[in-house]
Amino acid sequence: KKSSVNEGAFISERYKMAFMKFLGTIIICLPVILGQILHYNVSEESPLGTMIGNIATDANITSSDLTMEFIFLSQSNPLTSLFHLEEKSGSLSVGMRIDRESLSECKFQTECLLNLDVICRNSGSFYQKLELKIKILDINDNSPTFPEDSARLSVSEGSLVGTSFPIEGAVDRDGGHFSVNLYRVVPETAPFSVQFQKNVDGSSLVRLILKKTLDREQQKSYQFQIVAEDGGNPANVGSLVVFVDVLDINDHQPVFSQTHYNLTVDEDVAVNTTILTLTARDEDEGLNGDVIYSLSPRQDEKILKLFQVVPTSGSLQVKESLIFEPGKQYRIIVEASDRAKQPLMSQTQVTVNVRDTHNNPPRIKVDLLSNTDKAQILESASPNAPIAHVTVDDPDTGYNGKINCSIQSEKFQLQKFNVLEYKVVVAQALDREVQSEYRVTVVCQDEGNPPLNASSTFNVTVLDENDHSPIFTKPSYVVQTQEDNNIGASLIRVSASDKDIGKNAEITYRLQSSKYNFLIDPRSGLISAQFRLDREETPLITLGVLAVDGGSPARTGTTSVIIKITDINDNKPEFQNQSFEFAIQENAPKYSSVGLLVATDKDENEKITFSLLPQYNGGIPFEILPNGTIRTTEVLDRETIANYQFSVVATDSGSPPQQSSVKISIDVLDMNDNAPIFMFPSDNNSTVIISYQTLPHTVIAHLDTRDIDQGLNSTVTYVTRDRNYSHIFQLNSLSGRLILMKQLTTAEIGKYKLSIIAQDKGTPPRTSERTMTIVVTSQPIPEEAAEADDHKYFLIAIAISCVTIVIAVVIILTICLIKRADRLRQKYHEQHKSEPYIEIPAQRFHQNAIDSLNCSGMLDKDTPELQLYPSLHNSQISTKGITANLGQDDKIHHQLSPFTLHHVLGTSTSYRGGSKLARKGGDNSSDRSGEITPSDSGRGGSEDDLNTSILLSHCSSIDFENNKNNTPRKELSFSSFNKPRTSVQGNSFNAKNNVLQTKLPPPPRNVFGGFQRQESLYSDAGSFCGHDDSTTTSGSYVLDQEDIFDGLNSSLHRGQCIV
């Protein structure tokens, strides 16, 4: 009595712990029920098949359920086509090429995030929605691009340094760091720099900045490039060629050839005679450089009356007759102006002396210091350097013999050396490159009346010095050439000039050091390649070229040569894989898409066309579209051909085209398009004849069908419509064996017609129906059969004895375990955070092995193993070896899963008939009460039943409904495709009759044919065994030795547990 009190307290505490675990499970699973958000990252342009993640693993959805599948919620969403979701495993991978810049969801977005919904479900009640957030990572797959290849600007030479000129910026389809990050001017010697401002929308405002003043008179135009670089590594670039025309402004005034003119005319000179032609030069162009001449109005009116100047030619003419006045000179101011809107003007003075015709002019002698016919002077000569010696004399006397000399040149001057001796010296710095030769005139005039003058002219040659570096004709050269060139073939000729002359202008060409083997002719500047160019390896090569003159020290000029290598078709298309494997469901409509082939070509002609090899045209039910799509040309039948293998050719668009081929393998997947076909019973053979003396549980017929489908689509179960004969005949739904259930009497001799339905396990299932006839005759069983039956009953008796011993051991061991658990209950009170259990470890069968028996139980962890050794009908079952020998017909080997007894503590184990079992709802006497024993209702069990059956029941006050979720292991299930909680109720195994009795929740279809009762899994009173042993056979199922293993074999392979 004390033991019962302790046992009740122990069970009550376990109820509390079970409830707390159940509540915790609900709280933990609440986010799973409401849905989860999974985040993934994948780079654009990732190869097809690139693994992104496993939804099942990331969402912590772990199940061995073969019907669990993952599908996109909205199949019409175009984003789902970018990804491939494996329905069974939940693996998410790249399904097609992803171009981040082409996705409308990502345009003008800093972060490209795609939202997809996935449903996880099975064939049962499990259903969960998962939200996927897939971030598409940008790669640097686009180069900056300017709207135009070139731009032309007109810039005034009067523009100030720092003036900006807007240029339309480059656009890069990539975003973030891979967008345009830098602009630069090439070459850097150009008088412009570049500034840019990056806009929010990814565009950029680019400005050319003038970094030094322009002078049209020195250079009329410029050509350079603006190069845009993105932030990639290596960076992608785009370029814009800029042409700048320098516009002229009126920044130069006309300059007279001399600042002062001095001339003498005879007093009798005729009117309109040209006495002097003035010349002025303007460096500007157009109207800004067109010079007109005039007399300054701000001078003596007498000058304007006596002289005039022709505006266009600059001829100074006598307007009226001159009157000699002793010592009188006319100083005429002549103006030269251009024709600009705001003209510039310069003046010169012309001194006109009126000569007396009776006076003698002076005589001049010039001696050049260079001892040549021309005076020579280095351009680097310093001021006051002498170039000539001048001697003058005049035969006249008095004032007529007094001589004054002057020189008409800005670069030179006359210095008095002695009486009537002068030296000509350098007055200003010389530049041979500006003017290499000067004409110098020395004018001497006496003081006679009128004074007479004389002049002497000589030439001065400016000698060169090496003060200029060579200059190439272009700041950079661009040349295009094809790859696979001939070694040594010429590419381009560069040319440079030097403003110096002679040896200082003798130019030798050289190449700057480079990793490429190019050669340049030192004299002609002709560049050639000494190796074969490969565009796929290097599409662009830049060389530095030097021009070195022959001066001492030598001067050097530089330029760059950009070699653009054009493509030829020298590469074959390359397939993404060495071979492709696809699968398609049979009976798919004509022109269904099977898959997409992907190939690349290193050449520029990347357009690839796919086609079948000629020998396959018309020979296979597939066609290849030019874009690589494989389509069916007819409806496929897996039962005719299950696999197709052929080759596909990829051809590029080059000339001549290049080709490559790849092998394709296409598996035709099975669908349930064939119903089972009865082999027996058949149209010609549908009758079974037995004697009324045939022993019960004898297999009287074996149904046989054929289903040419595959897998579950070809797995057939059997069921009969005729329940009226269920007490006589029993059909095994798995093996198709028809079993005689009772001993027939002479009154039951006759014909019985059974309607048999064969149904496969496809979705949806297909069925076939056949009617068979069982003829019971009065013919006796042969004597040999009776003797065999006597031997059979002998073996059954031995088996019953073994089972009895095992049950006794189990009862004793259970009592010991309960007492030990009660003693240790206090010690382990703190450790009962989870339900304890005892488990019999899995072993292997060695002969006819039952598949995996997996049940849950609740025992202390330290409780010894519970071992059952029932002996039944020439069989031996051991929980240590878990071996069952039931005859010698079947040899099956399987792995046994852990076998655990449910709620052993607090339960009692008894033989059938040994104690009265609690009933469910008082159901004692119904002909179809749902009992699970083969006894007749109201009469108790038969002698064989009482002696041979084993009943493991839980006849206690445990509320099984409230404790069914306590175990951490899965509940027993007969169907892997339906996952509600299931258990076994009222178990009984009869060694003589081989009765396997189970209680199932409503499954998709009956596992054991049409004889299974569908009742509540748990009784109203919470009792685990809620039925009497004395009702009809309704709800029971009878198997022979082979039935046990066939049924277990089929069920346990699908994760079921049968007790």
UniProtKB/TrEMBL annotation:
One of the protein's GO biological processes: homophilic cell adhesion via plasma membrane adhesion molecules
Membrane topology designation: Single-pass type I membrane protein
Keyword field contains Cell membrane: yes
Primary localisation category: membrane
Cellular location(s): Cell membrane
InterPro entries given in the database record: Cadherin-like_dom, Cadherin-like_sf, Cadherin_CS, Cadherin_N, Protocadherin/Cadherin-CA
One GO MF term attached to the UniProt entry: calcium ion binding
TM annotation in the entry: 21-42, 793-818
Gene Ontology CC annotations of this record: plasma membrane
Domain Cadherin: 34-146, 147-256, 257-364, 369-472, 473-575, 576-678, 682-776
Stretch list, region Disordered: 910-946
Keywords carried by this UniProt record: Calcium, Cell adhesion, Cell membrane, Glycoprotein, Membrane, Repeat, Signal, Transmembrane, Transmembrane helix
Keyword Cytoplasm in annotation: no
Basic and acidic residues bias (residue ranges): 920-930
CDD domains: Cadherin_repeat
Listed name of the protein: Cadherin domain-containing protein
Species: Magallana gigas
